[in-house]
Design brief:
Layout: H1 6-25, H2 31-39, E1 86-90, E2 93-99, H3 100-112, E3 126-127, H4 139-151, H5 154-209, H6 219-253
Antiparallel strand pairs: 1-2, 1-3
Helix pairs in contact: 1-2, 1-5, 4-5, 5-6
Keywords: Coiled coil
Coiled coil: 221-248
């Protein structure tokens, strides 16, 4: 609970669960941690670019943020907060940030033509210590930019960018909280399942050592398994809400 890094905190929770299991069974069992790590691989570091089909996020070998026509957008963070890549910012509309590739593809041609709106962008990219998301990788926002440039309507551009950024921040905060909640619930369910196994073993051993009992009492095992099942249901509900939020973003805002 003292770690700001949610992944580190989750790993420590798995280690704690392994320690509880080891103490109760008197043998080392790292299965819980290993299974969690397999199910929750670490995020790709760097620009996330690997050979493959450009522009298909979430598919191995995809190039995030590919421009129309298949031109790879090397290092484009899309709507994922990035502190490692540089971006171009626009004077008077700081929320309109563009990665180097999308700036070169979308804004620079207009700046070279002398379009005043495009020339408001800083020509030299810089890193953002607090991170940035690219606002010009999607077809929708590129159309917004094109319409604003063709009509010279800066207020239209400003309205669309601010609306998108507000929704982006809202959904990012919501999905981050839901993902953490789902992860914690599944971890708790795993602990309950391990405790249920231990309770079953204890009940079996107790019954075998006491011939007066009619049979082992598995009531605690049943209760723990039921609690684990309910935790998994709640985790699935949280994950479903994440999927709904992601779909809302892609359909209406991206």
């Amino acid at each position: 609970e003292r770690y700001d890094d949610a992944r580190t905190a989750s790993i420590l929770q798995q280690v704690g669960g392994c320690a509880v299991t080891a103490a109760m069974t008197r043998r080392v069992d790292m299965g819980q941690l290993v299974n969690w790590l397999v199910a929750n691989p670490p995020p790709i570091r760097g620009d996330g670019v690997t050979p493959g089909v450009p522009g298909v996020p979430g598919v191995p070998g995809a190039v995030p943020g590919a421009a129309p026509g298949g031109t790879p957008a090397v290092g484009c963070p899309r709507n994922l907060l990035s502190t490692t890549t540089k971006c171009h910012t626009m004077q008077g509309l700081f929320d309109l940030t563009a990665c180097e590739h999308c700036y070169a593809s979308v804004v620079k041609p207009d700046a070279d033509r002398g379009v005043e709106m495009a020339r408001r962008f800083e020509g030299n990219p810089s890193a953002m210590p607090s991170g940035f998301t690219c606002q010009l990788y999607s077809d929708r926002m590129r159309r917004v930019w094109s319409d604003a440039v063709s009509t010279g309507n800066f207020e239209y551009l400003r309205q669309k960018v601010l609306e998108r950024r507000a929704k982006e921040r809202e959904l990012q905060a919501k999905t981050a909280q839901l993902r953490q909640q789902a992860s914690q619930l599944r971890e708790q369910a795993g602990v309950k399942e391990h405790l249920a196994i231990n309770a079953m073993r204890l009940a079996t051993n107790t019954a075998s050592n006491n011939i007066m009992l009619s049979g082992p009492d598995f009531s605690q095992t049943t209760q723990l398994n039921n609690e684990a099942a309910m935790l998994k249901v709640r985790a699935a509900q949280a994950e479903a809400q994440v999927a709904t939020a992601d779909e809302e973003w892609k359909r209406y805002w991206e």
